[in-house]
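User: Please run a holo structure prediction.
Assistant: Happy to. Please share the sequence and the ligand.
User: Here you go; the ligand is flavin mononucleotide.
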Amino acid sequence: MKNNLINTKFTLPCGVRLNNRLVKSAMTERIGNKKFEPTRGHVRLYEDWADTNAGLLITGNVMIDHKHLESAGNVCFEERMLPQLNRWANAGKKKGNHIWVQISHAGRQTNKFNATRPLAPSDVQLKKIGLFGKPRAMSEGDIEKVIEGFVKTALLVKKAGFTGVQVHSAHGYLLSQFLSPATNIRTDKWGGTLENRSRLLLTILREIRKQVGQEFPLSVKLNSADFQKGGLTEEESQEVVKMLDKEKIDLLEISGGTYEKVAFFLMNEDEGQVRESTKRREAYFMDFAKKVRAISDLPLLITGGFRSFDFCNEILENGELDLIGMGRPFITDREKIGGFIEGNVPVLNNLVIRTGIKQFEDAAEGGYYARQLIRFSKGKPFERNLSPTWSSTFLVLYEMKKALSRRIFQ
Ligand SMILES: Cc1cc2nc3c(=O)[nH]c(=O)nc-3n(C[C@H](O)[C@H](O)[C@H](O)COP(=O)(O)O)c2cc1C
């Protein structure tokens, strides 16, 4: 039998050691309560995910500002929540796993249920069927508050007993909006040149590092590209990687796309063609990874489309990546992941969600998986036959209801 690289330990630059190379990537849970607190559902989800034995579990995005949510069910950390946060952290560490919190600010991708005029680098509105209001360009004071918000949240992450933090600078959220010339048309020190557009991300990282210390894992999720006209290009993203390489971060996770150009789901091909498409699908961001390896020593994680043991093992063996990230298999195949890590399960599920209506596929895919997570949080099992069309409608109604109940509460 071949060496099993997936089931080997990995030491990060800060000295922390992960039990194996499999990472559950961030998937927004949407189950926070009216007070933006985590719930029993978070504990249940993470206890089950800890049982997969994945070396690292990254939480869904936790927002640094309750006015700029990605979902009405997001959690926003506050000191008063430490007991609940601690229960969540302990659930994720149950099997010696690491549990890191992804922290974010949605900027212009805050939907109208949560903010009609969200703050963003510039007043460039998202082009997406009326769900997102025209943003207001941030003042210098607003930017300062964002820096404080990231740092405060990172400190609470550590205090609550989570074992690391990931700064979300991908998928078109605030920090990714600052990086992109399409959404950042500022003329001050936070816009214009790539150096200026990266300033907010780098400032936040340096401040967090100062506060959490050298031994606490600090990671960044970055787009390889926005995949849209005028957005962050691959070449610019590589320049950002060079800047990150000089910072003391422990892990770089590569992803891509924004709400306008969803790319994190792209690699799902038709199920009938799985064999031919496997390589392509699994090669999702691999080309970019090679370029990153050439210019940086940062430990590297990629998420998106990885499903087969042999392929994952091979890219670890070739040194193309240090860690393998997965999202949807942690929903469709939770009980098989332990076997996958041990080399006893050759391939994980590649469930394809299709409605046949092109403009609707992203929403249906997102809705389908979001609904499964909400089910899991209530102790219900995976339900393969959920209607994708209804799931996306369900999600919009769920968001409206949650946003409304939070507004009433406030
Ligand atoms: C339901 C769902 C929620 C997600 N939420 C987040 C999130 O909060 N933060 C993030 O960075 N990525 C998020 N993603 C993207 C995943 O981390 C991952 O990049 C994507 O699912 C592709 O990986 P996969 O092919 O293994 O599923 C989400 C994906 C899904 C399916």
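The domain at 10-409 is CATH 3.20.20.70 (TIM Barrel).
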